[in-house]
């Protein structure tokens, strides 16, 4: 395959991205940097890398693009000069805004916002501008939104010249612990792990109806947990999996929906969870390992629900298993190649469990992936330039995510200064005192709206600050509250009208984005309900609050009953009865809904009814799996 041609400017940017990735690796391995210097340096490099790798001059701007790009880099450099000029004042708390350093801060902030729009689109930028306007308009706002407002000097102090805004703790946390996992994902993809995983998954699922879709789910789940972006994962794995699903007989919209739902679920899959696990552990104040354990069962049931929906759809469409002569035969070499995926992840987890930092665990994963690729993949070994390409792509992803986190810092600064999160939390908590379900629905809607169009980590950061405290005040355990908002931050990628994941998948599948989004919602119903389950039955998280074996067992039973009832109802088919009529579908949906209610008089009869349907439904004369 011919390598894409890059302009000299893009080559320079990619070279800096490579150096950025190498710097991240070297610092983790050997150095401890001054926190303020590290945070500014990471953001400054990110500004330059994004500017050069996505230059305006290659678009309709022409020569004016060079001037704009140069001005953006110069503006951030000027802001950097003033940042370090007042750095000592920041540490002592005696910083005083003046026209010069305020102007410099504005210049840096404008550059950051414009380049974030270039890297991620307008969603995050619009949100940041709304919050900035909210901060200045405080005295003029009605009711709950009213506050004392901000002056420009105060705003620059909290958003730029402090360690609560752009260069705040969140920026440091992401720079220290998250960026290495973006590099890890890029390296793993280049070693050939993706092709190996898809091949093995296809062979293992070929004897199940809808096997190609099941294989796609597995592949997207594994790579989704490392990508940090639903859209990026769909673009990376969807080009292989979506055509494979369509070839087996599924519609274009269904193929795109399966890929989108699986990729979104990958962001919730331990042990990496798109690196959100490290931020969540810091915000909740729990060890990383416990958060990983807590995420395991909810993610498992999310995927069981997705598998069941695919199976029911295959039954409805009468999609058979692959003929025996078309089933891929796994060889010893195939099983050996599986180490391309599982050995780096195992090495990462072993390092982490041994007590090392997340960053060091990520570094071990990167090095293991490279060594495993060199040993097992002859193509990778013959072309070691793939290593540099992978590091470059990882550096570009790291730069893009850092710009988004910097803009999130502006939002967090305004939220902290105005106290709007506390008032919002108090309002939802007052609703939760009388109706926790209503409070959770309000929190879900807020999370879906705030998360629309954003990559996983920035979406979670905003929602965790704005909404998680609200449902904690309403009586939800902190870990369950943060898991709840993370789920809906991710699911914003499949919720209309934005549904940005579906807008990436639909063109690959040749489907309609909006119809794809509605199908993705349908097949993700269990995943959408699981957060409510672990809020009311926190034993499903294994480590949240007072664990109860009895609660865990009955929660698992009712989830299994709900999974199958929802799958056959919404899919409109059962392997025993083939297609189901409207009455049967309605009954099964009602049984599934009752099984989700954590009240004995609801879930117990529902589980018995689901068992009776499974055992006593008449069998067809010729049964096919």
Automatic annotation (TrEMBL):
Pfam families: DctM. The chain crosses the membrane at residues 12-33, 40-58, 64-86, 98-117, 123-145, 166-188, 217-242, 272-297, 335-353, 360-376, 396-415, 436-454, 460-477, 484-506, 518-545, 552-570, 590-616. This is TRAP transporter, 4TM/12TM fusion protein. Part of the tripartite ATP-independent periplasmic (TRAP) transport system. The keyword Nucleotide-binding does not apply. It is a multi-pass membrane protein. PANTHER family: BLL3936 PROTEIN (PTHR43849:SF2). It comes from the Bacteria. It is found in: Cell inner membrane. Its main location: membrane. One of its GO terms (cellular component) is plasma membrane. GO terms for molecular function: transmembrane transporter activity. Residues 108-544 form the TRAP C4-dicarboxylate transport system permease DctM subunit domain. Keywords: Cell inner membrane, Cell membrane, Membrane, Transmembrane, Transmembrane helix, Transport.
């Amino acid at each position: 395959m011919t390598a894409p041609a890059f302009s000299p400017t893009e080559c320079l940017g990619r070279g800096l991205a490579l150096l950025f990735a190498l710097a991240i690796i070297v610092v983790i391995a050997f150095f401890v940097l001054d926190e303020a210097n590290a945070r500014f340096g990471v953001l400054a490099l990110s500004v330059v890398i994004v500017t050069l790798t996505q230059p305006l001059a290659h678009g309709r701007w022409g020569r004016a693009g060079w001037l704009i790009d140069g001005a953006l880099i110069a503006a951030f450099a000027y802001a950097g000069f003033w940042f370090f000029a007042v750095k000592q004042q920041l540490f002592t708390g005696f910083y005083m805004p003046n026209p010069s350093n305020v102007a410099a801060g504005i210049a840096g902030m404008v550059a950051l916002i414009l380049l974030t729009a270039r890297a991620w689109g307008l969603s995050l930028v619009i949100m940041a501008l709304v919050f900035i306007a909210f901060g200045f308009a405080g005295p003029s706002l009605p009711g709950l939104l009213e506050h004392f407002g901000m002056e420009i000097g105060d705003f620059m102090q909290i958003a730029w010249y402090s360690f609560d805004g752009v260069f705040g703790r969140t920026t440091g946390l992401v720079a220290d612990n998250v960026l290495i996992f973006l590099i890890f994902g890029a390296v793993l993809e280049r070693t050939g792990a993706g092709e190996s995983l898809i091949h093995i998954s296809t062979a293992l699922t070929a004897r199940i109806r809808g096997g190609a879709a099941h294989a796609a789910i597995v592949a997207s789940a594994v790579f989704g947990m490392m990508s940090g972006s639903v859209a990026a994962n769909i673009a990376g794995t969807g080009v292989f999996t979506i055509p494979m699903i369509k070839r087996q007989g599924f519609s274009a919209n269904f193929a795109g929906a399966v890929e989108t739902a699986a990729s979104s679920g990958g962001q919730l899959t331990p042990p990496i969870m798109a690196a959100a696990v490290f931020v969540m552990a810091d915000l909740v104040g729990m060890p990383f390992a416990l958060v990983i354990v807590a995420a395991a069962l909810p993610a498992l049931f999310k995927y069981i629900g997705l598998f069941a929906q695919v199976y029911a759809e295959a039954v409805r469409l009468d999609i058979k298993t692959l003929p025996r002569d078309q089933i891929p035969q796994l060889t010893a070499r195939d099983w050996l190649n599986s180490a391309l995926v599982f050995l780096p992840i195992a090495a990462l987890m072993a390092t982490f469990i041994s007590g090392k930092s997340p960053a060091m665990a990520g570094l071990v994963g990167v090095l293991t992936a490279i060594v495993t690729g060199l040993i097992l993949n002859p193509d990778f070994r013959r072309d070691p330039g793939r290593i540099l390409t992978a590091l470059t792509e990882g550096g570009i992803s790291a730069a893009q995510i850092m710009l988004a986190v910097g803009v999130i810092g502006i939002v967090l600064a305004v939220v902290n200064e105005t106290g709007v999160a506390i008032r919002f939390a108090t309002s939802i908590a007052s609703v939760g005192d009388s109706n926790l379900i209503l409070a959770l629905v309000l929190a879900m809607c807020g999370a879906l709206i705030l998360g629309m169009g954003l990559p996983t980590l920035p979406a979670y950061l905003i929602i965790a600050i704005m909404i998680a405290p609200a449902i904690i005040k309403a009586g939800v355990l902190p870990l369950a509250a943060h898991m709840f908002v993370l789920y809906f931050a991710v699911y914003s990628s499949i919720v209309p009208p934005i549904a940005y994941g579906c807008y990436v998948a639909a063109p690959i599948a040749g489907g309609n984005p909006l119809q794809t989004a509605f199908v993705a919602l349908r097949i993700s119903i269990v995943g959408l309900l699981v957060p409510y389950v672990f809020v009311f039955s926190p034993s499903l998280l294994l480590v949240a609050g007072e664990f109860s074996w009895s609660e865990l067992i009955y929660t698992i039973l009712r989830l299994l009953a709900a999974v199958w009832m929802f799958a056959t109802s919404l899919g409109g088919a059962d392997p025993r009865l083939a297609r189901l009529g409207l009455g049967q579908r309605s009954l099964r949906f009602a049984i599934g809904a009752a099984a989700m209610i954590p009240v004995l008089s609801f879930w117990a009869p529902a589980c018995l009814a689901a068992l009776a349907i499974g055992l006593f439904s008449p069998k067809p004369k010729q049964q096919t799996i």
